[in-house]
């Protein structure tokens, strides 16, 4: 709220210049039955509306629950049109509700800053002779989140709770040094979404991140810490007057008040020590749980790595088996091919041998058929020297030739066939001497 002090002071000036005349006109119209000048009223509203444009942040969500104002102490018979006219200079309201019997209403403006300006200007201002009270309405769909990790941010918190419904605002609360306090606020646009988030996260099973620390979700306690409780709002009864008989003071030593004040102080010190001891025990328990969780997480990771290693070993074994099966199939295929090749070669060799045998048998058959008439002819004719070698003597050969006369009729290398007769006893020729047996 400190960042909005500038706009409050600026519009405080507008309140003194333009606010009272408008309220005066509205009050006069209700009491005297006269209507204010519409042209003047419209010009003032238009000028203020143009000034309020500068207080709208880029990308800011509009008409949220945080822009909803509670208007109390309204006069009887106030209508929604009159309440709309009262807030007209702060922009067009998206929600206007009036409970005429109980004298209160609700108005939802465009942005939070405009609602703050309207609350600062209209609070405790007279309306039909009664000072109205303007406060921010309680957010019925706001949740308080606790036990947040240190690395949680506004964006992470909004992303985590967006699964339950549309979110108006998600804030992680930090201290004055900007350090996270482990607490946050989540505001939904509707109450059913907030109830759904409470039902789902009530058992502490919802994890904000991968770190297994469940968060705590509770309904947010609405506290008016901006205005507090002014003295004018206290019911001034008998107890009030009894308490205010003496002003604030210090108790003097030796008095009744001082003695019991010391006893109250000792009780508060004991309470403080008890809280510190409980906090210390809780912190030690949290540290122990975190240590056990870290060890369990490492063990879990080791187990996952071991399972992954076993899975990879199994995959490697399967791949080796497939590879060995593939190698065996290739070897068997090569053996079959080699066997087929040998069988083919054996068949070719046997065919060649068979063809050679057939050729030899055919040659022998032809040779025996051609030799048989010649043998018969030679066996029927006498073989002598004169008959075989008569022509050789006539050609001028001497009787004492060293060459056998029977050899003159022998077939040469170029002649086919065999001698027509076998040599007789007198067919051998001896050099320089002829013998007949």
From TrEMBL:
Coiled-coil ranges (or none): none
Ranges of biased composition (kind: Polar residues): 28-37
Compositional bias (Basic residues): 1-14
Chain ranges of the RRM domain: 67-139, 141-222
Keywords: Repeat, RNA-binding
Region named Disordered: 1-45, 322-348, 382-437
Classification via Pfam families: NOPS, RRM_1
Compositional bias ranges of the Gly residues kind: 390-399
Keyword Metal-binding on entry: no
InterPro entries tied to this protein: NOPS, Nucleotide-bd_a/b_plait_sf, RBD_domain_sf, RRM_dom
Gene Ontology CC terms, in alphabetical order: nuclear speck
Cell compartments where the protein resides: Nucleus speckle
Alphabetized GO MF terms: RNA binding
Main subcellular location of this protein, as a coarse class: nucleus
Protein's name according to its UniProt entry: RRM domain-containing protein
UniProt organism field: Periophthalmus magnuspinnatus
């Amino acid at each position: 709220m400190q960042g909005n002090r500038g706009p409050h002071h600026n519009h405080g000036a507008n309140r003194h210049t333009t606010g009272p005349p408008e309220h005066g006109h509205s009050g006069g119209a209700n009491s005297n039955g006269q209507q204010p000048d519409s042209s003047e009223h419209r010009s003032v509203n238009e000028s203020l509306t143009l000034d309020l444009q500068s207080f709208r942040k880029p990308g800011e969500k509009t008409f949220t629950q945080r822009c909803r104002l509670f208007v109390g102490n309204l006069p009887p018979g106030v209508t929604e049109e009159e309440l709309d006219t009262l807030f007209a200079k702060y922009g067009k309201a998206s929600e206007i509700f009036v409970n005429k019997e109980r004298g209160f209403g609700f108005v939802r403006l465009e942005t939070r800053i405009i609602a703050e300006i309207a609350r600062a200007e209209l609070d405790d201002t007279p309306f039909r002779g009664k000072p109205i009270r303007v406060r921010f309405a309680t957010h019925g769909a706001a949740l308080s989140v606790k036990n947040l990790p240190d690395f949680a941010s506004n964006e992470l918190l909004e992303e985590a709770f967006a699964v339950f419904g549309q979110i108006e605002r998600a804030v992680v609360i930090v201290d004055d040094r900007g350090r996270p306090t482990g607490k946050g606020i989540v505001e939904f646009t509707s109450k059913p979404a907030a109830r759904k988030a409470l039902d789902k996260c009530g058992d502490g099973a919802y994890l904000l991140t991968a770190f297994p620390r469940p968060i705590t979700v509770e309904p947010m306690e609405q506290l008016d810490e901006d205005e507090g409780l002014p003295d004018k709002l206290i019911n001034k009864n008998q107890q009030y007057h009894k308490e205010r008989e003496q002003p604030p003071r210090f108790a003097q030593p030796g008095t009744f008040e001082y003695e019991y004040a010391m006893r109250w102080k000792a009780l508060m010190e004991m309470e403080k020590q008890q809280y510190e001891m409980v906090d210390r025990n809780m912190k030690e328990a949290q540290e122990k749980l975190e240590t056990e969780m870290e060890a369990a997480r490492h063990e879990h990771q080791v187990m996952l790595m071991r399972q992954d290693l076993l899975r990879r070993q199994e995959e490697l074994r399967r791949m080796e088996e497939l590879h060995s099966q593939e190698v065996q199939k290739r070897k068997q295929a090569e053996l079959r091919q080699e066997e087929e090749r040998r069988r083919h070669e054996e068949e070719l060799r046997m065919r060649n041998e068979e063809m050679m045998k057939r050729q030899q048998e055919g040659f022998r058959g032809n040779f025996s058929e051609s030799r048989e008439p010649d043998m018969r002819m030679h066996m029927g004719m006498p073989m002598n020297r004169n008959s075989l070698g008569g022509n050789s003597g006539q050609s001028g050969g001497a009787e004492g030739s060293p060459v056998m006369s029977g050899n003159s009729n022998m077939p040469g290398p170029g002649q086919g066939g065999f001698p027509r007769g076998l040599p007789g006893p007198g067919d051998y020729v001896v050099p320089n001497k002829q013998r007949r047996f």
